[in-house]
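Because discrete structure vocabularies remain unfamiliar, it helps to consider an illustrative case, giving the amino acid sequence and backbone structure tokens:
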Amino acid sequence: MSDHAPPAVSISIITYNQRDLVGRAIDSALMQRTDFPFEIVIGDDCSSDGTQEVLREYARRYPDKIHLILHPRRYRGEVPGRTNNTTNLLNCRGRYTAMLDGDDYWTDPDKLQRQYDLMEAEPDLSMCLHDARMDYANPADPGEDRMEFMSDQLGGCATGRYTHEDLAIRNRLNPFIGSIMYRTAQLRDLPDWFYSIVAADYALMLHLSRNGPVYYDARPAAAYYISPQGFQRVFRKNPTILLQELRDFDTYAEHFPATRLSRKAKRRRAHLHWHLSQHYRETEAWGRALHHLVHLFRTDARFGLSMIFNPARRARAYLGGRPSPSRASKSEENSAAIRS
């Protein structure tokens, strides 16, 4: 990869202990059909499972495409993976940057070309996104269909332009980080508050979308891998992370006032108070458990009642919200409608 010829697009892939998955992500980037040069910048957060050996082999085979940033240690005192993520983004040299996590992958070989053409044709856009299907690591339960798409959670999103407010309120868009392409120059300076935010993906999208409209394509072009070992399932059950995520809502409210109107944010706050109340109950920290239970009902009393009196819903919440058979059936109908 020449240091004197910046590519048109940089693909930022971040990974940690994904030896058996990251090759799929890299292959989905390498398969892209474009009429412009692109680079693949891969950051690894000091994996201990052999992921770095896989990355070195790819870099050996594709030295003109792949640039590795292999961190020699994990950094303490930060949200897990934050240095890896930011270092990767700040080393992207392309006019545009496309993002992809190491366990997700793209499903459309024309994804990059289509987004590049759009961004070139509409210079006021801050970024573009598209739909993605859910790829579950575990086998389906009896009667459960896994053809669910990200947009199904909102009943299907229409192709077209959206505003910063649409993204902030999150009642019209359900963004996926593996679908994003943005103008690299707009993310050269990251705000200080970003380094402590838990949901970096959402924070980045909010930050970028203040620069202009967002274009959403309802055509699925990626897969979002749902794993029991993923960040959502592991770190977000850590009370320290959960408490930080509660503080994040105050940060959003300060810097992105439209988030104060988000019904989805209200429900997420309630979820966090519920999980924290259960954690402290199990550890017999009764005062803290009561504190979060009170705040749960202050935030969303209806949700609090449903969690207490609906054992099935409680179980799904602890499992990470896997779809029920009836929900999956509706998802299949929505997906068919989007594709038609």
